[in-house]
Design brief:
Elements lengths: L1 H16 L50 H6 L8 H10 L6 H13 L3 H13 L7 H15 L1 H10 L7 H13 L3 H14 L5 H14 L5 H10 L6 H13 L3 H13 L5 H15 L7 H4 L9 H17 L2 H13 L6 H13 L3 H13 L7 H13 L3 H17 L1
Helix pairs in contact: 1-10, 1-16, 4-5, 5-6, 6-7, 6-8, 7-8, 8-9, 8-10, 10-11, 10-12, 12-13, 12-16, 13-14, 14-16, 14-18, 14-20, 16-17, 16-18, 18-19, 18-20, 19-21, 20-21
Length: 413
């Protein structure tokens, strides 16, 4: 089960990065974490620096701008040193701000160039003129995990002064533990976080819920939600999605409806939330969870069981709620590439998401994919239930548009 659950964890993490205005500076990228150890550890900048001279490709050309970002992004190989580029930039008398370095580092991270991003972080740390924020230390923990591994990140965290062991650096370390599925360490740190008295936000608790969902320990998610409420931590949309996903995995439709009712009453309920709530209601109304029981036993031996697929369904619904069509595309493509058998419920989930987002071209493409599938027969009755569910939810135009696409697909075939 490790491979599919690893896929689920990575998808949820990339999902969170696109959540549009949620938590800290990285839009809910699960980058925050720390602890309270006292072992002194000095991270050597020499480990990140290269003595190699800069490649000629770093020189400015007429075809590309000669700014710091361009110079760093022209580094073709990880062995090339971003710190050398920065030092040269400064030696030429150019101005440099910490916000500029943070922006370049963030773009490097988005391009998966973690070593160069870490070198920028190291340069910031070793130059005392910059006032570092907790988020800088937290980003560094995440980058060190990616480049050198958990042990290096732990040692760096242990070396931080007490004032820097904040909610952000704590969550960064927790993120690293969760990503590596180090459950014991994650739970131990989580306990210290709860006992610390520091003001933590939903992102920290979401880390634990994501870990439990990726491990298939869905029954533990509700305990984290209880902790949040006891600590008076406001649930965000990711928290609710994880909570609902865990209930869906247990086929607890009644509990899902109770959670949706709670969401409606939440002061944070905005357009994104309402779109998500509507999608979940449509998912339930069209009988997707009720249809699960008939085939779950037969598929229990598959690498990804139908109950596990539910988590992917709700991840798609989450991004559709946020209006993140690109993320919906990415997740759907990733799921299709697993080569595992998908049920009609999976197709209905992606169809409802594209319908809600008014992307009718994609609706037609999914219908074609379903009809061409050799593993799952196209189910017209499921589509009919989806049509009714949209109409009952007050989306008659979308319902009618879906009917039109279905008719066009039937005529084409």
């Amino acid at each position: 089960m490790a491979a599919p659950r690893s896929l689920l964890l990575s998808l949820r993490r990339s999902a969170s990065a696109a959540g549009g205005g949620t938590s800290s500076g990285n839009t809910f990228s699960f980058l925050r974490g720390a602890d309270t150890f006292a072992i002194k550890y000095q991270y050597s900048s020499d480990a990140l620096r290269s003595t190699e001279t800069l490649d000629e490709s770093l020189s400015s050309t007429e075809s590309s701008p000669d700014d710091l970002k361009s110079r760093i992004f022209r580094l073709r190989l990880p062995k090339r040193s971003a710190t050398v580029v920065i030092d040269k930039w400064v030696s030429e008398g150019n101005q440099l701000t910490i916000s500029q370095l943070r922006s370049i580092s963030m773009e490097l991270r988005g391009s998966r160039r973690y070593k160069h991003a870490l070198e920028i972080s190291e340069w910031m740390v070793t130059h005392g003129e910059f006032q570092l924020a907790d988020s800088d230390y937290a980003d560094r923990i995440d980058l060190m995990t990616k480049v050198f591994g958990i042990d290096a990140a732990e040692r760096y965290f242990q070396s931080l002064p007490p004032a820097a062991k904040s909610n952000e650096t704590c969550t960064a370390l927790l993120h690293s533990y969760a990503g590596a599925k180090l459950t014991d360490k994650a739970e131990e740190l989580y306990k210290r976080i709860k006992d610390s008295g520091l003001p933590f936000k939903a992102i920290t608790y979401n880390e634990m819920m994501t870990l439990y969902m990726s491990l298939g320990q869905v029954e533990k998610v509700s305990f984290i939600v209880e902790d949040m409420k006891c600590q008076k931590v406001v649930l965000d949309l990711f928290s609710f999605n994880l909570w609902i996903s865990s209930c869906a995995a247990d086929l607890d439709v009644g509990r899902i409806q109770t959670i949706l009712d709670e969401m409606i009453q939440d002061p944070s309920c905005d357009e994104d939330w309402r779109r998500y709530i509507n999608l979940v209601n449509i998912y339930i109304t069209s009988g997707q969870l009720e249809n699960l029981g008939s085939d779950s036993h037969a598929e229990s031996e598959l690498v990804i069981t139908q109950r596990e697929w539910i988590s992917y369904d709700f991840l798609i619904l989450l991004h559709a709620g946020f209006g993140n069509k690109d993320k919906v595309d990415t997740i759907w493509k990733a799921l299709r590439m697993t080569g595992q058998k998908m049920s009609g419920r999976n197709y209905i989930c992606i169809l409802s998401s594209y319908l809600m987002l008014d992307h009718m071209k994609e609706v037609g493409e999914v219908i074609d994919q379903w009809k061409q599938s050799t593993a799952t027969l196209f189910d017209k009755s499921s589509c009919d239930r989806l049509i009714d569910a949209f109409a009952k939810a007050g989306f008659s135009e979308k319902s009618e548009a879906f009917v039109t696409v279905l008719n066009q697909s039937h005529s084409a075939s």
